[in-house]
Amino acid sequence: MKILVIGGTGLIGSKTVRLLLDRGHEVIAASPSSGVNTITGEGLAQAMVGTDVVLDLANSPSFEDAAVLDFFQTAGRNLLAAEEAAGVRHHVALSVVGTQDLGASGYFRGKQAQEALVKASPIPFTIVHSTQFFEFLGGIAKSAGEAGTITLSTAFIQPIASPDVAAVMADIALAAPLNGTLEIAGPEKVRMSDLLTQYLLDTSDSRAVIGIPEAPYFGATLDDDTLLPRGTARLGTIGYADWLASQTGR
Known about the structure:
The protein has helices spanning 11-22, 44-48, 65-86, 106-120, 137-143, 162-173, 192-202, 240-248; strands at 2-6, 26-30, 53-56, 90-96, 125-130, 149-152, 156-157, 180-185, 190-191, 208-211, 234-235. It is of the alpha/beta class. α3 runs parallel beside α4 (106-120). The longest helix is centred in the N-terminal third of the chain and has 22 residues, at 65-86. The termini are far apart.
């Protein structure tokens, strides 16, 4: 198969590309630096020639509300139009568990728009809803502020490691389209404030965490289970301790 990976040089994309190459497939790691730009449309038509499957693993470079929405709408329209013209047989998009319930967040409104475009397209599709990546814990802490004490939601999360995400994306690329959504998560459920407290301690960050149920998460207030899978999810095997050891050598 020929598989085009949008965002193929990123955290998830680079790992997914390696897995698919190891399985003997023709894989293009597409990014603006390689001459494939979903915002301008540059290089899309050429990259689509002979392509069977497109994995959209790209993320917005900005989390500002208007910029996020523009990114996902523009990239989605350009990408899906090029796929339809080329006869691509399967579009796979990586999204986030809880996206449908997080319309108060500008970022998640962008993801909702992306998913709506995928579902409205005639191209068979699979949307993968992932829980937060362990690699994003630093970003969650940063979003809560730079002061000595930060407030974070006490809602549950079930974070997943990027190698586990990549393994799922590679499997989905080679499977038949679901024309629906698959949820994936890590093996351990924990409260966000508790995990971030441990993460800051483990990374020698002196900030203290105060857990507050109504603390916003990228502009949205969470229920206890907003960021947890709704049904039967495919679970990764890498827990927090093993992930941390892989990052720090401890």
